[in-house]
Amino acid sequence: MLSYTQEARAHTQAESFLQYFQRLMSYTKPPIFETPETSYMRESQQEYVHMDIPASLQRYERIRRELGMLFNRLKTFLEKGLIDEPSIKEILEQKIIFEERRAELEEKYHGKVVVVCNGEVFVGETIDDAVAKAKAKHGNRPYYSEALGITDFPSVLF
Amino acid sequence: MSFFFRSGALYSKIKITGVVTKEYEALVDTGAAKTGIPINECQKLGLRASGIEWTEGLFGGDYLPLFESKIEFAGKVLDKSIVGLPIHIPIIGRDLIRHLKMTLDWRMLVANVEDP
Question: CB distance A143–B50 less than 8 Å?
């Protein structure tokens, strides 16, 4: 699908999570956004205005936005000592794999919980089911999880 | 049994084990799908995030960390993944209470676990 992100996903040990994230973002930038036919610079606000972006390319922008949000959250978890740098890189990678397959997964597994671990997708009725399947195959590797079509936030928050 | 009412809400004692073990008074929330504890408490327990989950509800969504821990609740010991939440009290969700057969009398404020 997004073949050029496959290269971006191959991170190295020496690379910091920040460098990895920046590289991911540069690879996931849709190439069509940079062509003059489809975008122009609004000089007053110094920003690109995109015109006629095909629906198929809007998901690139979604991936970038979601990655940015996830990265910011992961940074705060790192500061609190809840996670380490190699895990951050791996979770970002799993997130991209999930976003690339989101449409297909949402259609196939609506109402179920999906866990992406080491590039593989595991599905369960609950998060515990899906995580157990992932752990049976990949041990304690970090994973990314999302419930498809389920609203399950605790009801007393905030 | 470790259930009790406070201000009209049902609470229970819960013991969570990470690197250290701590006991909490947690709110029993039938509207919550998952059990969670405050993120600050995760730090105190020495838990490390095993994954991240996108969770959403009435107030929008957020990426929250998941932790593998041992939970002692109503006489049962369970290995479970719990969520780190941006709140001040632990919450017992449906993933834990579904293990119990219990009756609640909201008039008399009595909770009975029939089959622990």
Answer: yes
Written as six digits, the tokens of A14 are 């020496």
CA angle B37, B38, B39 (to 5 degrees): 115
> Count of H helices and E strands in chain A?
6, 5
Vertex A146: Cα angle to A140 and A147 (nearest 5):
125
Report helix, strand or coil for A113: strand
* Set of chain A residues whose Cβ sits within 8 Å of the Cβ of B48: 82-84
- Among the ranges given (A51-65, A76-90, A113-127, B73-87), the one the predictor scored with the smallest mean pLDDT: A51-65
Which structure tokens are listed for B27?
């709110």
What is the helix (H) or strand (E) element at residue B104, kind and residue range? strand B101-105
Nearest to B56 among A144, A153, A156 (CB): A153
Task: Say whether A157 and B54 touch across the interface (CB within 8 A).
Answer: no
As for the ipTM of the complex, it is 0.84
Q: Kindly report, residue by residue over B62-107, the tens digit of the pLDDT.
A: 899 999 999 998 888 888 889 998 888 999 988 888 888 888 888 8
Q: Which among A4, A38, A73 is positioned nearest to B61, based on CA atoms?
A: A73
C-beta separation of A94 from B33 below 8 A: no
Half-sphere exposure of A101 (CA within 13 A, CB side): 17
